[in-house]
Amino acid sequence: MSLIPIVSKAFCAPTQTALTIRKRPRVVNGGGFVVLNPQQNVVFSVHGCGILGVNGELVVKDGGGASILFIRKKGGLVQALSACSERWRGYLMEFGRPNKPLFSLRDPKSCFAMKSAIRISVDRKDYSNGWDFEVKGCFLEKNCTINDRRGNIVAKVGVKVKASEDLYHVNVQPGYDQAFVIGVIAVLDNIYGESTRC
After folding, report:
1. N- or C-end of the chain: fewer Cβ atoms within 10 A?
2. How far apart are CA 71 and CA 12, in angstroms?
3. Span 66-124, pLDDT tens digits
4. Domain range holding 172?
């Protein structure tokens, strides 16, 4: 089995990993969400506007509280005239600062992309010049997958407890980068006005 790191090999497991996402209320710790492993230990946390104070900026931290990803919504030069250029970019955090660009995705609510798959590009030479991953299905209903370019499922998002809107699960396939998957979910959470949004 080969590892497919985007953030780091440290976040790639040799077996399928079942993660639970628990949204935090916006009034507690500024919202966002925590990601739990099957032993109910926090393995990631995502912080948005409630903590950072800036809309359109997210930070993903590992279980020890170290910042690993900084994600920012960036508009193009013509942003004032068109929402078509709004993109989210994820950066590796090094020495407490965003440094190396890792991935980007276009806001699906811009232009006419509402019903099409959300495509994600990885900023590395060993990846394609187009898109590398895509989100299929409906994130709002917690019924979607993240697939690679060949159509292989990287991660599946689903409802774990139907009675609770604050819990859902993500199954990440062996070898894929869990931090990258959580970064994509953090962007989707913000785009659709969930726990990381102001």
Report:
1. N
2. 20
3. 999 999 998 654 444 445 557 999 999 988 889 899 999 987 765 444 556 799 999 87
4. 9-104+158-191
